[in-house]
Design brief:
The complex is a heterodimer. Chain A is α+β, with helices and mostly antiparallel strands. Chain A has helices at residues 39-42, 44-64, 70-74, 124-128, 165-169, 196-206, 223-226, and strands spanning 19-22, 30-32, 108-109, 134-140, 148-156, 175-176, 193-194. In chain A, 24% of the residues lie in helices and 13% in strands. By secondary structure, chain B is mainly alpha-helical. In chain B, strand 5 (315-319) and strand 6 (322-326) form a beta hairpin. The chains are: A alpha+beta, B mainly alpha.
Chain lengths: 227, 404
């Protein structure tokens, strides 16, 4: 924003006190000039006047000026023009700051063509999770090609550190972290635990395709027959 | 009809109108204005959310929300406090300020029978008891010769509020705050009174109504801005403003509150009891603005607007010992319009001075306790005394030379 603070005093050599005389007996004993504040610096009224001028300038500019466009403000872009004010506030629920492109958001669970969860309860993600926020209870799938499925699949969003290791670990593209939405505010800690159905429904909620293009096991559900 | 005028002329009516019509709305709005203005000075937006349905008004309604919150909060009284004094202290803090408002001239004398036409100032000076000028209403509650001395005396009582609050709270920090408050009030009361002494010398009266309606010299009309005291007594204005801001106990003089070290004399208060201290502070801001406007900036005078209309380049003529503006380029205005303009001018001056006090409060860093005492006793007091002597010398020479 301001470019006026360019003149830092780092490049100047640290000036010691000016030595007026050195004792002949011991060179450590010296007479030095004491630097007192100049009349200008010590004058409270002058300093107060300067300060009032600065705040008055900001006040008038912010009162009279036009607010910078919220989307540019959110991205931290410079807005050129004399008539814009300096207000930095982004009014949160209506305006949001620009998110980085790699922002992930909540987990979502992917679905098969028949709408069932793709997860085969292999326990890779709870194993790799550094925050131990994933709980999976496996059960028999009743389908020889799948073998297992999660009876319970819960993620505690309060414990999740959004590292994305679960997505990397998943062998069947069942879990993704690309919903781009925050965890909703809750009043009880238990409400922050997202269950299987919530995770499955999140795709629809954020308007993303819940089906994965990856084929199960790499070659489709009938991979055994194909062999 | 004259009964109505008699009721309007009653001091109680005028006082109620002043308090309910100007002081309380302004003080309440200041609670919002302070936060909003500080935000604007610091590149923020400030409170702009409070609304009744779609009515938002840039957040002005925050003061309503604050009031509802403070009134409906639990009235908590800690153990071991002196219950009687604890309850009395907020009232002692706020009541004197209301009382002190009675000396403020918030408008000129109104002659109800001349509302429709321009006021005949010559006839008024020649015979004030004529039927055309009956039922006059002076827009000042208490017109007494000791004028501003009343203000000094009464506002000092407000100090008891803080000190008693600190004493009654059974809390060491509160007690420290109360003691700091009384020491600060005592120190600055001295310079405050003395800084106005030059004005009293120059005008020859302690009565703010007279200061407003007379001005410094009779060479110019009283509505001429050059005839107001800000020009003649500029150092006194600076001194008085400094001492008066110190009296409101706000930054840069917020030693009694002292948020970084002690919380101040109202640390044990909550809800509307605390709100009363808070409100008293804002009413004091309004009051000090009103005093400065009246003494230094011509009070209800509009520049170049005399009682009978706008006049440029006029002079004063002596009619029966009364100074009446005459001559010059004159644009007559109905008496009602003149009164309305003058009331608006007083309101505007008060609002601008309140704004300036907020600007000061949000700009300057606070003093240390010892710096505060040094400033009060070693800077303001000698300056005020020196200025009295200079003014007296000036006046002596000016009177001998026949300038005043």
């Amino acid at each position: 924003m301001g470019g006026s603070h360019a003149h830092d005093e780092h490049d100047e050599a640290p000036a010691g006190p000016k030595v007026l005389a050195v004792s002949k007996v011991s060179p450590k004993v010296r007479t030095i000039a004491v630097v007192r504040p100049t009349a200008d610096e010590a004058n409270y009224l002058a300093a107060a006047k300067t300060g009032l001028g600065i705040t008055l300038k900001h006040f008038l500019k912010n009162i009279l000026g036009k607010r910078r466009p919220a989307d540019k403000l959110a991205r931290g872009e410079e807005v050129q023009g004399r008539f814009y004010n300096d207000i930095e506030t982004i009014q949160y629920p209506e305006e949001k700051t620009h998110y980085p492109e790699r922002f992930r958001g909540l987990h979502r669970l992917m679905q098969r063509e028949d709408g069932n969860v793709r997860c085969v309860a292999c326990m890779c993600c709870p194993t790799v999770c550094p925050a131990h926020c994933i709980t999976i209870v496996p059960e028999e799938a009743g389908d020889a090609s799948v073998e297992k499925r999660p009876a319970v699949f819960e993620i505690d969003e309060l414990r999740c550190v959004v590292c994305g290791l679960c997505v990397e670990a998943c062998p069947c593209d069942a879990i993704r972290m690309d919903s781009g939405v925050h965890a909703e505010p809750v009043e009880n800690r238990g409400d922050a635990i997202m269950t299987k159905n919530l995770l499955l429904d999140l795709s629809k909620k954020v308007g993303k395709d819940p089906s994965s293009i990856a084929t199960q096991g790499g070659e489709g559900p009938d991979w055994r027959e194909k062999r | 009809m004259s009964t109505v005028y008699a009721i309007l002329d009653n001091p109680a009516t005028k006082w109620a109108l002043l308090i309910l019509g100007l002081v309380m709305p302004l003080a309440s709005l200041l609670t919002w204005a302070e936060r909003r203005q500080s935000a604007m000075m610091q590149d923020r937006l400030g409170p702009n959310r409070a609304n009744i349905g779609p009515i938002k008004l840039k957040g002005i309604l925050h003061f309503v929300a604050d009031a509802i919150k403070m009134i409906s909060k639990e009235d908590f009284i800690p153990g071991n406090v002196h219950r009687g004094l604890f309850a009395l202290a907020p009232i002692l803090a706020i009541a004197p300020v209301f009382i002190a408002f009675s000396i403020i001239p918030f408008g000129p004398t109104v002659f109800p029978h001349s509302f429709g036409h321009s006021l005949d100032t010559f006839a008024l000076a020649a015979d004030p008891s004529a039927p055309a000028f009956a039922d006059s209403i002076r827009l000042q509650v208490l017109q007494v010769d000791y004028g501003l001395l009343f203000y000094f005396a009464v506002l000092t009582l407000a100090n008891y509020g803080g000190t008693i609050a600190g004493w009654a709270s059974y809390n060491k920090w509160a007690l420290l705050g109360g003691l700091r408050s009384s020491s600060q009030m005592m120190s600055y009361e001295v310079s405050m009174g003395l800084s106005l002494m030059g004005c009293f010398l120059l005008v020859g009266s302690l009565e703010p109504g007279y200061i407003v309606s007379a001005g410094v010299t009779t060479k110019m009309t009283a509505s001429n801005p050059l005839n107001w005291l800000w020009l003649w007594q500029f150092p006194a204005l600076v001194l008085f403003f400094t001492a008066a801001v110190a009296e409101t106990k706000r930054a840069p003089f917020d030693i009694p509150e002292g948020e970084p070290e002690i919380i101040g004399y109202f640390v044990e208060y909550s809800g509307m009891r605390w709100g009363l201290f808070f409100l008293a502070e804002f009413i004091e801001i309004v009051f000090i603005s009103a005093v400065i406007a009246s003494v230094f900036f011509g009070g209800w005078q509009v520049p170049f607007l005399d009682a009978d209309g706008f006049r440029f380049g006029g002079h004063l003529a002596d009619i029966n010992g009364q100074w009446v503006a005459t001559g010059g380029w004159h644009m007559p205005l109905p008496h009602g319009v003149v009164i309305a303009l003058q009331l608006a001018a007083f309101g505007l001056k008060v609002v601008l001075l309140c704004w300036f006090q907020l600007l000061v409060r949000w700009t300057l860093p606070r003093f240390r306790a010892d710096q505060l005492m040094n400033l009060g006793w070693k800077v303001l007091l000698p300056c005020a005394l020196g200025w009295i002597m200079l003014t007296a010398l000036f006046q002596l020479l000016a009177m001998q030379a026949g300038w005043l």
